[in-house]
Amino acid sequence: MNLQLITGPAVEPVSLTVAKNFLVLDASFTQDDGLVSALIAAARQYAENYTHRAFFNQQWRLSLNNFPVWWPEHGTVSPVSRTEYLLGTYWMKQSAILLPNPTCVSVDSITYVDTTNTEQTLASSAYYVDTTAEPAIVVPVPGRYWPTTQAMLPGSVQVLFTGGSYGDGVEVNTCPSTVTTAIQLLVSHWYANREASSAVSVKSIPFGVDVLLDTITVHCMDYNSH
């Protein structure tokens, strides 16, 4: 599995003005505006990686080597022809594609390389997306199953999707204070400590960044948990 960012968020959860106020920098002091803006972006990326979320709308590409329920000799297995291999909950476990970086806003496309080495786009009517789940669950619609892909071809399945837990950041912004406060704490620390190492021993603050972010962290991203 490989995950690639296609389009990042249009805005940051914390504005430059808010960050400068937190840093107690005068509004007229603009020399470090570029630095502070870069630190805001870095802090947001750290917080997203830590929580396994996309805060504002972002488009991602999930690359898979094959669809779930895959048999080495026959590609994707039909629940009709190989029921002996599909014992268990086919829909919610064996056939599910879980999408990282919740909350899922939409699945924009699913493409795959078929057995003739031709790229195909799967019709949106062929699968169902539960965007309320975290992570989102994508399964075939009733009576359908995933198509057979080219055997052992890395990246033969591509899922393009948009994720954003707290809106687009422009018209919709429900980002909680735990996120914005954690970002401001990180920006403050990095602004005051601009080197990769220090002779001074630094300790994490109890109830600091990690404790704030733990309140929204997605802890489960494995296929067996659903």
- Share of helix, binned: 10-25%
Number of helices: 5
The residue-averaged pLDDT reads 87
How much strand content do the residues show?
15-25%
- Count of all domains: 2
Protein structure class = alpha+beta
- Net shape: elongated
What distance lies between the first and last C-alpha atoms, to the nearest angstrom?
Answer: 18 Å
Rg is 22 Å
Oligomer: single chain
Q: Could you give the order of the helices and strands?
A: EHHEEEHEEEEEEHH
Q: Give start-end ranges of low-pLDDT stretches.
A: 84-92, 222-226
Blueprint of the fold:
Layout: E1 2-7, H1 16-22, H2 33-51, E2 58-64, E3 70-71, E4 75-76, H3 90-94, E5 97-99, E6 104-113, E7 119-121, E8 127-130, E9 136-140, E10 157-163, H4 177-192, H5 209-214
Antiparallel strand pairs: 1-2, 2-10, 3-4, 5-9, 6-7, 6-10, 8-9
Could you characterize what this model shows?
This protein is of the alpha+beta class. It folds into two domains: 12-50 and 172-225, Hypothetical protein yqbg; 58-163, no CATH class. The chain is built from five helices and ten strands. The chain has helices at residues 16-22, 33-51, 90-94, 177-192, 209-214, and strands at residues 2-7, 58-64, 70-71, 75-76, 97-99, 104-113, 119-121, 127-130, 136-140, 157-163. The strands form three sheets. Strands 1-2-10-6-7 form a five-stranded antiparallel sheet, with no helix packed on it. Strands 5-9-8 form a three-stranded antiparallel sheet, with no helix packed on it. Strands 3-4 form a two-stranded antiparallel sheet. Helix 2 (33-51) packs across helix 4. The two termini are 18 Å apart.
